[in-house]
Specification:
Layout (H helix, E strand, L loop, with lengths): L4 H16 L3 H49 L10 E5 L3 H8 L4 H10 L2 E4 L4 E5 L3 H16 L5 H13 L1 H15 L7 H8 L5 E2 L2 E2 H18 L4 H10 L13 H11 L4 H9 L9 H15 L6 H18 L4 E7 L4 E6 L6 H18 L7 E5 L12
C-alpha cells in the first residue's frame, strides 16, 4: 500500500529532526532569527546610507540658503569714513571761502571742528574722524557757497543753524535705513535713533551698512526656513540700537533691550536683542537667524578692520584730554591727532594764562595720549563785540 503524501511528509520531517537534533519549532525559530539578523544588518546599512545622503544634501541646502541670503544682503548704501568733499562752482567761490588772509577758512574750521583741505581743482575736502561734524560742515559749506555774505560771524551763524537742525538729518537718515529693509510705521523718535547708525562705526564697519546688510540676510534665511520674517526684520534692524545711546550706563545689549521695551517692541524682538551675542540661550528660531546673519555681515572678509577703530579712539582721547582743563570751551583734533586746536573762554583765560595752558595740555598729552611723532597744541582766545542798529 502506497503511503499517503501527508504521512510521507511527516516521516521526512521526523528524519530531519533526528539528523539536525532540533524540533520543527526550534528550526523555525533559528531560521527566523538568521533572517532577522540579515534584515537588521541590511536595514541598518540602508539607514546609514540614507543619513549620510541626508547630511550631504542638508549641508548643500544650508550653503545654498546662506549664499542666497548673502546675495539678498548686498547693499549700495554708501558711508564715508573720514573724508567728505564739496565741489565749488568756480575759483571766485574758493576765494570767498578762504577770505582775507585766510580769516574765513579759520573761522569755519573753528566753528565746525573740521579741517578744510583746498585742492588745486574746484573741490574742498572736509576731514574729521567724527562723521557728524563732517556732515554739519558739508551742509553749512554748501549753504555758504550759495551765499555771497561769507564772513566769520555769518559762518558761525550758519554752522550753528545746521548743527541745531541735525535732528531732521537723523530722521532723514533713519527713514533711508528702515525703508531699505522694508520696515514702516515705526515711531519717529525710534527712526531718529536709527538715523544715528549713519554716523557710527564698529571696528571700521559703518553701522547703517551693517544693519541693512544683516537684516536683509536674516530675512532671506527666515523665508527659507518658514520663520517669522517680520520678527527677524525688526530684530535685525534693532539688534545694535544700544550702540548709538551714549547717555546711559550699561553695554549696548542692555541699552538696546531698554529701548525696545520703551517703544513697545514684541517680546521676541526684545529677546533677539538680548541674545544676539549669546549672553543668554536662544529662545526662538528667529533669534538664531539674527545671530547667524549678524555673524555673516560682521565676519565676512573686508567688513571690519581694527585700525580705523583705533584711530577714532585715539582722536577722541586726545580731544578729551585737552577738553578737561578749566576754561576750555572746545578742543578739536586735526591731522590724525598731530594738531590740536583749543578754544577757551576769554573771560576765564587771559593772555598771560594762554601760554601756560598750552604747555599744560601738551604735557598731559605726552603722558596720557597714544600718538606717533609730535602734537602741536594751539590755544585760541577771541573776544567779540556786536551791536544792532535801530529800526528805520
Amino acid at each position: 500500500m502506497v503511503k499517503s503524501e501527508k504521512k510521507l511528509k511527516e516521516e521526512l520531517i521526523k528524519k530531519l529532526e533526528d539528523v539536525s537534533h532540533m524540533s520543527r519549532e526550534e528550526a523555525k525559530k533559528q531560521l527566523l532569527a538568521e533572517v532577522q539578523d540579515e534584515l537588521t544588518s541590511e536595514i541598518a546599512k540602508r539607514i546609514r546610507n540614507a543619513e549620510d545622503r541626508i547630511k550631504q544634501e542638508a549641508n548643500e541646502k544650508a550653503r545654498e540658503i546662506l549664499v542666497d541670503a548673502m546675495k539678498h544682503g548686498a547693499t549700495d548704501y554708501v558711508a564715508e569714513y573720514t573724508l567728505s568733499s564739496v565741489t565749488l562752482p568756480n575759483e571766485e567761490a574758493k576765494g570767498r571761502i578762504i577770505g582775507k588772509e585766510g580769516r574765513n577758512i579759520r573761522a569755519f574750521e573753528r566753528a565746525s571742528g573740521v579741517e578744510i583741505d583746498l585742492d588745486e581743482g574746484n573741490e574742498i575736502r572736509l576731514s574729521s574722524f567724527d562723521p557728524i561734524r563732517r556732515e554739519i560742515a558739508r551742509r553749512a559749506l554748501e549753504i555758504l557757497i550759495k551765499d555771497t555774505r561769507i564772513q566769520p560771524s555769518r559762518i558761525e551763524e550758519v554752522v550753528e543753524r545746521v548743527r541745531s537742525g541735525m535732528d531732521d538729518v537723523l530722521l532723514e537718515e533713519g527713514k533711508k535705513i528702515v525703508e531699505a529693509v522694508g520696515e514702516y510705521g515705526l515711531p519717529t523718535d525710534l527712526i531718529r535713533l536709527i538715523g544715528k547708525f549713519r554716523f557710527r562705526t564698529s571696528y571700521g564697519q559703518n553701522l547703517a551698512i551693517h544693519t541693512i546688510e544683516e537684516t536683509k540676510i536674516g530675512m532671506a534665511i527666515a523665508r527659507e526656513l518658514d520663520a517669522d520674517v517680520e520678527v527677524v526684520r525688526l530684530g535685525g534692524l534693532l539688534h545694535d540700537i544700544g550702540k548709538v545711546v551714549t547717555d546711559n550706563e550699561g553695554n549696548h545689549i542692555q541699552k538696546g533691550v531698554e529701548i525696545a521695551k520703551r517703544f513697545g517692541m514684541p517680546k521676541k524682538v526684545v529677546s533677539i536683542i538680548a541674545e544676539h551675542h549669546e549672553d543668554r540661550p536662544f529662545s526662538s528660531i528667529e533669534s538664531v537667524i539674527v545671530w547667524i546673519a549678524d555673524a555673516i555681515s560682521g565676519s565676512r572678509p573686508g567688513a571690519r578692520y581694527e585700525p580705523h577703530e583705533d584711530y577714532v579712539k585715539r582722536m577722541k582721547a586726545i580731544e578729551e584730554i585737552a577738553s578737561r582743563f578749566e576754561g576750555v570751551v572746545e578742543a578739536v583734533a586735526f591731522q590724525a591727532g598731530r594738531d590740536v586746536r583749543v578754544i577757551v573762554n576769554p573771560e576765564e583765560v587771559d593772555d598771560d594764562k594762554l601760554t601756560i595752558l598750552a604747555r599744560d595740555i601738551a604735557k598731559s598729552l605726552e603722558k596720557e595720549a597714544n600718538y606717533a611723532g609730535q602734537i602741536k597744541v594751539t590755544v585760541l582766545r577771541e573776544t567779540k563785540a556786536s551791536e544792532t542798529t535801530s529800526a528805520k
